[in-house]
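A reminder from the course coordinator: this example appears on the midterm review sheet, so study it carefully.

Given structure:
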């Protein structure tokens, strides 16, 4: 017997899937213990529909991760096309911080599924997105030359540890300011 396809093809099935993902993203950002029944209800679908798309809580979390990481990867060159490199980097970092608030409560699921990042198919493209941004800033002169994108990623990884419930947004903003100051070719003058 043939199993269900991994990706829905009917428009209504795609719409249901998108609504589930949207509601789940909001629900997990508010509480990592959000119930799947509550997510289904708020998305306007039955629990069976949710389970057809995402057979486990982990499957739902991983799909959110994949979607959000791909959006961040795609955002880097789009921001560079519309902004100076330093501005593009800051805007991208702000989006990474927003994503970090979602990842905060579900990081252990993502790390387990990706073997702590070793088996993460998005690692290389994510590092490459950072590279695009820092290379553009270095070429333009606003960032230090020869920045290692993996070093920048290590700095950003602190965002996954900031508790959103404990003034997380303000703390992330301060931390990102420190990171950017460290990446600048010439630190801002203090006088």
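Designed residues:
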């Amino acid at each position: 017997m043939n199993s269900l396809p991994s990706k829905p093809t009917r428009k209504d099935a795609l719409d249901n899937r998108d609504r589930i993902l949207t509601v789940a993203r909001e629900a997990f950002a508010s509480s990592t213990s959000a119930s799947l029944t509550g997510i289904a209800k708020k998305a306007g679908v039955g629990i069976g529909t949710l389970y057809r798309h995402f057979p486990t809580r982990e499957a739902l979390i991983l799909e959110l991760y994949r979607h959000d990481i791909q959006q961040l990867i795609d955002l880097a060159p789009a921001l560079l096309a519309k902004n100076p490199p330093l501005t593009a980097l800051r805007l991208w970092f702000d989006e990474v911080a927003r994503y970090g608030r979602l990842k905060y409560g579900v990081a252990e699921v993502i790390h387990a599924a990706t073997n702590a990042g070793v088996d993460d198919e998005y690692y290389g493209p994510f590092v490459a997105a950072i590279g695009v941004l820092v290379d553009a800033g270095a070429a333009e002169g606003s960032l230090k030359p020869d920045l290692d994108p993996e070093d920048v990623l290590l700095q950003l990884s602190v965002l996954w540890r900031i508790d959103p419930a404990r003034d997380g947004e303000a703390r992330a903003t301060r931390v990102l300011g420190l990171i950017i100051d460290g990446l600048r070719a010439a630190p801002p003058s203090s006088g």
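The chain is about 70% helix and 0% strand. Residues 134 and 147 are 7 Å apart (CA to CA).
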